[in-house]
Design the sequence.
């Protein structure tokens, strides 16, 4: 499978290189859908310039990147384009390897369940064969690399790509079963943007599953493993944060990065939900609503953990989708990451859910136009932008929920009576 | 010969006897909020005319809420128009507003008039008039019988205003004062004046409303009031050398055009309005007469001979630029110190990375290296 992957990578790199040289690069970098205050390249350059002038880059509200990014780009700023292309490629390779391993695990589990005769007869069409699963990792890499969203993100040199790389490596480490590496990468991802904290739960569930530790609240081994993993994660996070202190000898980066993510002071229109709401809010209520909106991201973790404890990787996918929809400054790069996972569950698409996926596309087309409407036709058109984003959000959620439903259908068909095909529903 | 001298002497004395030597203007718009656009436009139009006729910004105290030009509801930002079809932008680039926004209060207005201003107030906010100053006071906004509303929160009554003018008279802060008011029931505001040398004009009598002139469909509000509109039309024809007098100003805006009846009061004024030039108040006309004769202003002074000032011989003509070594300064660039991450950080980071690497892949690889 290496050769087609290399081919895909070459095509992707070519596309990006071509776009870098064209005039579209400047145009794309300016779009708010692609570059948010957290990850715009312009701000990275500004921060590094401030540093060269002897001023802390965190003074003023321009720069919201972490010190490790400062360190990375201090030496690599001339090769920025190359760095972003390499990070995209690394993400794709990481996803490829992760999904390859995941498929092996899934296939083994499926084989086991078939032999134990746990599936109902009419689920035959959902059983996956090695043939069709063979191409899924390639499709994932393809989906990620050639997704216009990823390409735009890369061409705009948004550090969202670096975030995606770290998350991809985290997923790879989790699926390979290494708790230590998974904790380290999760700490890095959380350190950069706060929200991957919620990925702790699916990772934990997957690792428990891998170690064959049942998820029961009374089980001692469950708690032991959880504590170990949590300790690894927290220690790495603390170590990384303390190390960042030593870069600039100040704790300025904490309010600039995490304070900014949590308190959402910048209300430039983007594809998220925060700005429209907070632009017209009285100061008195803003703290309350900021808390409500932020809790919204973290809120789904526990119910989903309870529901999807048998499918932790699907849980991870849903969680990434939730993060990318509800985070305070989403960009298309975040969406690209979760869209990359869609081929993994392609067997579920024989259900009408996939139609709704394509309904996602028209709002995507309208998004840039709605920004123009907002800019040119004054504030009262702003609600149209918001409606477009709501549609986008709802469709995103709808797709994931339908995916979940379909997945559930597959798992539960044997168990729930009224889902069995031979059940006569006269009594209803 | 002595007759000619005394003739010139008389002329010179005449020159210094008549009226005023400087002009001031206090222009007050007492309203704020978007729908009171016309009051700001009124005041700014008068400001423009007064500047055009020669009164400099240093002699104009302009009090405006100044919330029109940059109002979010203004479809033409940074402009305030005073004619329909947006012919004339009275805001422009060189408006100097002395009291803006919440500083336009009754207290500040009275302090400006009476001169009782806190010590730190800048010159632009002071009315530094003397007993040879002719002052034009123009007020516009919403008014009633005996009062004028300031910014929706307070009022000034006609009694207060009359007392303020009396204070000005007693402190010799004006030579002659022209008071123009364009509000509803404006005549009530000058009823109570009792100080000499005040002439007053108002846009409407007690019981009448002053009406606005034109709404503009592009901006969405009324742009000017009728009385001020016609006063300005009248002022457009005035130039610094015109000889038009006050009687013509009283005829401006008859009831047929203004719907309200403008009023005026001249009983306190010592000169006949016929002899008062418009430019005595609206312009700042410097009296200049050219003569080739020497006139001694004081006969006793003729004894004093003015000595030519001693020429202080400078050693060398000192030029400012030569005192600074310019050439040296130009070529001196600030050294850009590049920032480097501290050594401790790099060490720590790479130590961590190596630790993670070896933890993952096992110590056995280290044995291969060593």
Sequence:
């Amino acid at each position: 499978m290496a050769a087609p992957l290399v081919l895909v990578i070459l095509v992707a790199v070519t596309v990006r290189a071509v776009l870098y040289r064209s005039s579209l690069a400047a145009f794309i970098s300016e779009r708010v859908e692609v570059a948010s205050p957290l990850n715009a390249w312009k701000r990275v350059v500004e921060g590094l310039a401030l540093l060269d002038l002897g001023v802390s880059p965190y003074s003023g509200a321009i720069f919201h990147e972490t010190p490790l990014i400062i360190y990375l780009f201090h030496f690599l700023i001339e090769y920025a384009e190359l760095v972003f292309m390499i990070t995209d490629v690394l993400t794709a390779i990481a996803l490829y390897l992760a999904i390859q391993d995941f498929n092996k695990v899934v296939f083994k589990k499926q084989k086991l369940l078939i032999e134990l005769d746990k599936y109902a007869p009419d689920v035959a069409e959902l059983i996956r064969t090695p043939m069709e699963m063979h191409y899924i990792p390639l499709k994932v890499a393809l989906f990620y690399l050639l997704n216009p969203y990823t390409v735009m993100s890369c061409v705009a040199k948004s550090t969202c790509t670096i975030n995606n790389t770290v998350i991809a490596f985290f997923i790879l480490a989790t699926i390979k079963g290494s708790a230590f590496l998974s904790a380290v990468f999760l700490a890095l991802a959380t350190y950069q943007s706060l929200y991957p904290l919620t990925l702790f739960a699916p990772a934990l569930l997957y690792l428990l599953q891998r170690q064959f530790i049942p998820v029961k609240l009374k089980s001692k081994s469950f708690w032991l493993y959880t504590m170990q993993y949590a300790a690894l994660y927290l220690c790495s996070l603390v170590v990384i944060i303390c190390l960042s202190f030593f870069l600039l000898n100040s704790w300025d980066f904490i309010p600039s990065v995490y304070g900014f993510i949590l308190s959402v002071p910048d209300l430039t229109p983007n594809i998220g939900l925060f700005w429209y709401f907070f632009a017209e809010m009285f100061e008195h209520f803003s703290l309350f609503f900021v808390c409500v909106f932020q809790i919204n991201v973290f809120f789904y973790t526990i119910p989903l953990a309870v529901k999807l404890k048998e499918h932790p990787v699907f849980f991870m996918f849903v969680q990434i989708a939730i993060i990318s929809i509800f985070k305070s400054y989403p960009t298309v790069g975040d969406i690209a990451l979760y869209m990359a996972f869609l081929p993994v569950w392609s067997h579920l698409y024989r259900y009408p859910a996939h139609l709704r996926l394509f309904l996602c596309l028209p709002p995507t087309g309208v998004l840039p136009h709605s920004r123009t409407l907002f800019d040119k036709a004054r504030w009262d058109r702003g609600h149209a932008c918001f409606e477009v984003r709501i549609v986008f959000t709802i469709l995103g959620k709808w797709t994931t929920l339908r995916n979940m439903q379909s997945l559930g259908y597959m798992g539960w068909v044997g168990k729930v009576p009224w889902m069995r095909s031979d059940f006569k529903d006269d009594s209803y | 010969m002595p007759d000619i001298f005394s003739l010139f002497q008389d002329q010179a004395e005449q020159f210094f006897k008549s009226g005023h030597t400087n002009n001031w203007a206090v222009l007050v718009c007492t309203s704020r909020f978007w729908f009171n656009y016309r009051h700001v436009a009124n005041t700014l139009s008068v400001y423009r005319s007064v500047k055009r006729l020669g009164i400099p910004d240093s002699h104009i105290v302009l009090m405006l809420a100044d919330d029109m030009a940059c109002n979010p509801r203004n479809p033409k930002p940074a402009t305030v128009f005073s004619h329909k079809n947006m012919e004339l932008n009275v805001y422009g680039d060189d408006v100097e507003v002395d009291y803006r926004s919440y500083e336009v209060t009754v207290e500040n207005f009275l302090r400006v008039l009476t001169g009782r201003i806190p010590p730190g107030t800048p010159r632009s906010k002071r009315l530094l008039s003397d007993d040879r100053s002719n002052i034009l006071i123009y007020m516009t906004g919403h008014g009633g019988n005996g009062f004028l509303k300031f910014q929706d929160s307070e009022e000034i009554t006609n009694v207060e205003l009359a007392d303020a003018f009396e204070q000005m008279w007693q402190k010799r802060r004006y030579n002659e004062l022209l008071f123009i008011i364009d509000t509803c029931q404006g005549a009530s505001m000058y009823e109570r004046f009792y100080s000499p040398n005040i002439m007053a004009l108002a846009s409407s009598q007690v019981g009448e409303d002053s009406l606005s002139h034109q709404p503009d469909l592009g901006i969405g509000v009324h742009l000017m009031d009728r009385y001020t509109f016609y006063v300005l039309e009248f002022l457009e024809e005035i130039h610094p050398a015109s000889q038009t007098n006050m009687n013509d100003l009283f005829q401006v805006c008859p009831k047929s055009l203004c719907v309200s009846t403008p009023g005026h009061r001249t009983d306190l004024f010592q000169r006949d309005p016929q002899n008062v030039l418009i430019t005595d108040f609206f312009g700042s006309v410097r009296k200049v007469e050219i003569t080739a004769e020497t006139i001694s202003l004081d006969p006793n002074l003729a004894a004093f001979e003015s000595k030519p000032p001693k020429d202080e011989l400078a050693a060398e003509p000192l030029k400012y630029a030569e005192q600074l070594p310019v050439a040296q300064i130009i070529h001196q660039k600030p050294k850009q110190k590049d920032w480097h991450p501290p050594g401790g950080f790099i060490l720590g980071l790479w130590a961590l990375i190596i630790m993670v690497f070896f933890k993952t892949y096992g110590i056995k690889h280290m044995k291969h290296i060593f």
Summary: The CA atoms of residues 8 and 142 of chain A lie 6 Å apart. The radius of gyration of chain A is 22 Å.
